[in-house]
Amino acid sequence: MGDHRLADHFVGFHAYSFHKFDSNAAVPRQYYGKSDLLLFQIHAGLTGVAWGSAFFLLGLHGDVMQMLGLWSIALAMMVYASLLLPTAPMSATIFISVTSVCASAIFVYQEGYYLALAALAIGGLLIGATLRSARAQILFEVAGKVLQDKSETVSLLLREFEDSGADWLWQTDTSRCVTHVSPRFAYALGQDPKTIEGQPLLKLIAGDAWENGKYDKALHDVADRLKKREAFSNLIVPVVINGQNRWWELSASPRFGENGSFLGFRGVGSNVTEQRESADKISHLARFDTLTGLPNRLQLTETLGTALQDSDKWRRRCAFLMIDLDRFKAVNDTLGHPIGDRLLAQVAKRLQLIMSDNELCGRLGGDEFAVVVKDASSAEYLSRLAKRIIEALSRPYEVDQNSLFIGASVGSAYGPADGRTVELLMRSADLALYRSKEVGGNSHNSYQHKLHASAEERRLMEVELRDAVDKKQLHVEYQPVVNAANDHTLVGFEALVRWNNPKFGNVSPGKFIPVAEDARLIVPIGEWVLRQACSDAMQWPETTKVAVNISVDQLTSPAFMETVISALHDSGLPAWRLELEVTESIFLRDGGLAIKVLERIRGLGIKLSLDDFGTGYSSLGYLSNVRFDTIKVDRSFVQGAAKTKPKALPLSARWSPWPMRSICPQQQKAWRQKQN
């Protein structure tokens, strides 16, 4: 009986000490130091030894039933340790291991082998449970810490996002009304957060459209997404804030609860008004001419393409008109590009006044304009439109106190008859325009199929003309010039270039000279004629002169003076026997440069002749600026004098062309033999 009381006191003491000492481990703590863990492990080991000694003390004198009662109490303590010490698994493992081994040893001593195995097995299970519980506890703590860190990071990012001033957060409930209004969102709306709370999102951003229901397409898209509970991203929508138009970029996704119920939308918005206006400006610059404000080539071609598609669809005709300003280059060259630019702006305004909803007028570049006629079913309508354009653009202009007179040439083509694609239709109109320029300008011509054949002939002629000099297809004929003041004494010849081509035969200068000028071949051809004329003139009597026509491109060429000097030097022809003929057009190209070059030519002793006098716009001004030895009066000028027109002046001509045919080289040889 005394042993039982001793055991009871022992058990009660150890149970009380274990509870008082290890109860600290059951209380959650933020941090356990190494000293705390070591103290737990020492206490667990001592407690296990104490309980083990109790088994040995009672087991030597007690029976199996008494040992089972003591083991039951120890088992309760082991379960208690495994459950309430998850943060100190090593301490619980030590206590359970020592206690289980001691109990098993006493059971073996008392020949209770099954009880010994049961004690070890239960101890092992409790140790495994302790370790699993500790592992779960550690994972739970780590996950909680990670979640806490993420929550703090998200909160920090949201605060930084709201404070950045660039974007804002917004949120709606299930009825699409705004909730939890952020300060930045309220600032973007220009309202107080309390006023915004609970109002429909679309009402806040739609302005007057909320009342009349006339939403922009982008707002309709947002409304549909909200209604269908679909996420959307980077939608650009127009909003009205305090009567001012703005552009917002909205993104949002639906929110759902744990049970899958819809909670509303949460999204982000930003003000992209400046970016939108900048993009619109860039788009405008890409489609409109900066000088005149008219649509540019890109927009014209797009509109023409649409017009061609509509023509096929509705079985009607469209048209394309190309407009080129006559005499505009003279304005640019004489008065400067700023005056020319202001003149182009006035031309654009006149064209806009003529256009209706059926036409789109634009600028192709330089002094070229164009008109797309969407419905050109009436040929008379197109003809009247071209006539109105010519009349409007031919009226006088006042630019910086300068009275300017220009004209306009128009070429038109019908689609799809004259071209089923934009490129072909524009080319057809360009050919018609070229025809208008060819006949003198200030006129309108429609495309005809023969114009294409003519253009192809010009192309082939240009190819052949490039090799004409090397293949010796060009030759010079000479027209006699006589003195009209006495007995028509022969005083010289005028050099005339001729071209005999195997494909085209004898080509008229009126056909191949313009081709040579357009192809930049007039300079080498002109140099060859000059050298050939100087060389031939050396075979004539010493008093006979030779006149050579000089083109504008030759005179303005940097190497022109060297070419003239070289031709005289190589041939040995005296400078006074050479006469260079120019037309008034050289003064329209670059009057200052032309005057300087002509003065240098006169300085060499070479004679100067002004051809086609009276066809320009400032003929008398040229006579006062440059000293000409000969003036060839144009036929229209003489006819004007006969009709007493004010511009005609009485002039006495010292030189006049002999009304007879040109002289070929064989005739020159016969003429020289006769003179000798």
Characterise the protein shown here.
There is one protein chain. The protein is of the alpha/beta class and 676 residues long. Helix content is 55%, strand content 19%. The strands form four sheets. Strands 12, 13, 14, 15, 16, 17, 18 and 19 form an eight-stranded mixed sheet that branches. Strand 8 and strand 9 form a beta hairpin. Helix 1 runs antiparallel to helix 2 (34-59), helix 3 (64-84) runs parallel beside helix 5 (113-163) and helix 13 runs antiparallel to helix 14. The longest helix is centred in the N-terminal third of the chain and has 51 residues, at 113-163. The model is unreliable at 24-28 and 644-667 (pLDDT under 50).
Query: What is the strand tally?
Result: 19
Helix content: 55-70%
How many helices does DSSP assign? 25
**What average pLDDT do the residues reach?**
80
Rg is 53 Å
**Principal-axis shape:** elongated
| Structural category | alpha/beta
Report the sheet-strand fraction. Answer: 15-25%
Largest sheet: 8 strands, mixed
**Low-pLDDT ranges:** 24-28, 644-667
Distance between the termini: 178 Å
